[in-house]
Amino acid sequence: MSNSSSDEYYPKYQDLRRANKEYARQEVIRLHSEGKSISAIARTMKCSRITVRKALRRYKEEGTKGFRDRSKRPKNSPRRTPLHIEAMIVATRERTGYGHNRIARILQEQGISVKPSAVRNVLHRYKVSEKVKRSKYRKRQRFYDFEELFPLSHFEVDLKEIYDTKTLSKEAIEHGERLKIPPYQWTAMM
């Protein structure tokens, strides 16, 4: 059996990378310094030529610092909420303790166009906690300050099944069905 370099086993680039990311790139540089071409290194390590070129380019530009992984974070985020609006969102939350829907409505009344989902993302990013209401002596407290609520913004909705077999007789249910009375009753309270 011959001992040529194509017959001997060489680990894949991905296997080396899983074990140690910097070592995988060092191996690419070592094979290149031995005189192997980019295509030969890619075949040996079972990776693409783009991967080999990237490792060589980073080593040439940065030296051994080029072996380290770079951040995958985008360099710019054009759709991200501007910082001054983020500061207003956080300040409003800390001042009032409102949720993302009400904060978005307050800012829209001030002329700042912001969606509730954007407010939710900002609050999550800054890890701003909600006000926690604890009841005193286990008494029930109102969760809403009804003086601060906007008109027609808070409803309690109830759905009741009219044709309840436990409370109505069979004749009453049949009579209601003949008159085509809807089987459910919706109730909304402010």
Brief synopsis:
This protein is mainly α and 190 residues long.
Give an overview in words.
With 190 residues, the protein is mainly alpha-helical. It has three domains: 13-67; 83-125; 151-189, no CATH class. The chain has eight helices and two strands; from the N terminus they run αααααααβαβ. It has a two-stranded antiparallel ribbon with strand order 1-2. α1 (13-19) crosses α2 (21-33). The longest helix has 14 residues, at 49-62. The chain is elongated. 11% of the residues are buried.
Which key phrases capture this entry?
190 residues, 3 domains, 2 strands, 8 helices, single chain, 45% helix, elongated
Shape designation: elongated
- Poorly predicted segments: 1-7
Radius of gyration: 33 Å
Strand content: 5-15%
The average pLDDT is: 83
| Intertermini distance | 89 Å
Structural class: mainly alpha
Individual helix count: 8
How many β strands by DSSP? 2
Main sheet properties = 2 strands, antiparallel
Q: Strands of the largest sheet, in order across it?
A: 1-2
The tally of structural domains comes to 3
Provide the helix percentage. 40-55%
* Helix-strand sequence: HHHHHHHEHE
Please render the helix and strand layout as text.
Layout: H1 13-19, H2 21-33, H3 38-45, H4 49-62, H5 83-96, H6 100-109, H7 116-125, E1 156-161, H8 170-178, E2 184-189
Antiparallel strand pairs: 1-2
Helix pairs in contact: 1-2, 2-4, 3-4, 5-6, 6-7
